[in-house]
Amino acid sequence: MELYHLSIEEARRVLDNGELSPVELANSLLDRIGALDDEICSYITVTKEKALEQARDAEKALKEGVRHPLLGIPLAIKDNICTKDIRTTCSSLILENFVPPYDSTAAKKLGEQGYVLTGKTNLDEFAMGSSTENAAFGRTKNPWDKARVPGGSSGGSAAAVASSQCLAALGSDTGGSIRQPAAFCGVVGLKPTYGRVSRYGLVAFASSLDQIGPITRSVRDSAIVMNAISGNDRNDSTSAEVDVPDFSSALGHDIKGMKFGIPREYFREGLDRGVEDAVAAAIKQLESLGAHPVEISLPHTEYAVAAYYILATSEASSNLARYDGVKYGLRVDGEDLSEMYRKTRESGFGAEVKRRIILGTYALSSGYYDAYYKKAQQVRTLVVQDFNKAFEDVDLIVTPTTPAPAFKAGDKTDDPLQMYLTDIFTISLNLAGVPGISIPCGFTSQDLPVGLQIIGKHFDEATVLKAAYAYEQATEWHKRKPEI
Ligand code: GLN
User: Fold this and answer.
1) How far, in whole angstroms, is CA 397 from its chain's centroid?
2) What whole-number distance in Å separates Cα of residue 62 and Cα of residue 22?
3) What spacing in Å lies between the alpha carbon of 176 and ligand 1's midpoint?
């Protein structure tokens, strides 16, 4: 097997026993990126020099007997997660030349284990989108079919993992941005519970919904990255003061007798046939492993997308006020201060970001606040209650990750509402703050990957990972690789 195809788990073994050097591994990935990424466009910045420097450091540390789960492991980071002295653009012209003077907590924690950064991955501008087409420096292609989108907004991370241009990557998920691209690219994506992973240094989109999480090629690798990045952080007051279990030790246990809720609202008309069939087969598979599927209801599901697009845009309109040509990035001069603001924001932001700022500003404006923002908050509470109630009776909830597989590039760019609806199955989890994973569960007749979403209780990623691992080990889907 080529080195770039190794999982973290496999690489760990051969790095630790000296059969492989971190420099060799890093070079294999960098060559792969050199050969593929002009076409796939999963990276905005490839950090070749840095990767080789970190790989040499890892080699030295290994020789000295240092051992960490991610020591010498080549990983990519979504380009809205700050990396010290490395350009972090958010795929926006307004931050084209922004070099953060500090590391996000997630990047810092990877650094403490001696990881190797391959580069910063592409995304929809400021993580606003579902296709990685709202990208200032070029769209990412789906490695399974280059005419199709990889999903978004963490499309660069998912495509890089699927095409073996890193062993794993970090993404961020505000309404589905880790799970939806993971589903479209046939890899594993986990959105942790809100508060599990520090958001310090994650460029804010919608602060009450954003979470950082791993995109990997296996469930075990997801647990390994989760172990590294989770935990309370005094730099993020919304990170939770709860114990972090060892996620790896949650794997390998049977799921006999576990109750899986199957929400009827997720199996309605409009669901793609190939997705429906794959998910139905996956539920059968879980059953054959001893789990009990139970039909449940999440009755406010149909209002989740509308509420999300009020709340997320409201928070975005406020968060993005900081890009004023003074403190960060781009500045376009004008006659006076307000003209400078106007010109900077006019030329720095793309169309979708502007649309969201306008929507959010409108929803928060004094005459409309009660009608939109407050209403949406009330809907959010109902969605939270839906999950709380469902989890009184079941251990986990199982759904398709997306209503359809990867769509063709350009198909939805002129119709924002259709684009927004692709997140219909992922958004509720962000509103409720609960964790969810997407794992490969089959292919459509057009050979496009399908994702199975497993949802857990707050801070119960361990059970989510346990069930995902049991399913993965009983199936072969995760072993398929795109032919590139
Ligand atoms: N697609 C959703 C949006 O455009 C979610 C994005 C995300 O999770 N960052 O807002």
Assistant:
1) 19
2) 9
3) 6
Contact predicate 354/342, CB 8 Å = no
The pLDDT assigned to 327 comes to 85
Strand order in the sheet with 259-263: 43-46, 116-121, 74-78, 168-173, 211-216, 188-191, 436-443, 449-455, 396-400, 259-263, 292-296
Topology, domain 3-257: Amidase signature (AS) enzymes (3.90.1300)
Q: What pTM was estimated for this model as a whole?
A: 0.98
CA dist list (Å): 52 to 166, 289, 477: 14, 44, 33
Please identify which of the residues 7, 177, 198, 428 carries the catalytic annotation.
Answer: 177
Which H or E run contains 61? helix 48-63
Residue in 404, 400, 180 with CA at minimum distance from that of residue 279: 400
Q: Which residue, by CA, sits nearest to atom 4 of ligand 1?
A: 129
**Look-up: residue for tokens 């993971």?**
182
How do the domains of the chain map onto residue ranges? 3-257
Residue with tokens 């790095």: 15
The residue among 297, 152, 253 whose CA lies nearest residue 468 is 253
Is 153 noted as a catalytic residue in this protein? yes
Residue range 281-339, pLDDT digits in tens: 999 999 999 999 999 999 999 999 999 999 999 999 999 999 999 988 999 999 999 99
Residue 433: helix, strand or coil by DSSP? coil
Ligand 1 centroid from CA 10, angstroms: 32
Q: What is the DSSP string of 203-235?
A: PPSSTTT-EEEEEESSHHHHHHHHHHHBS--TT
Measuring CA to CA, how many Å separate 92 from each of 98, 438, 458?
A: 10, 27, 33
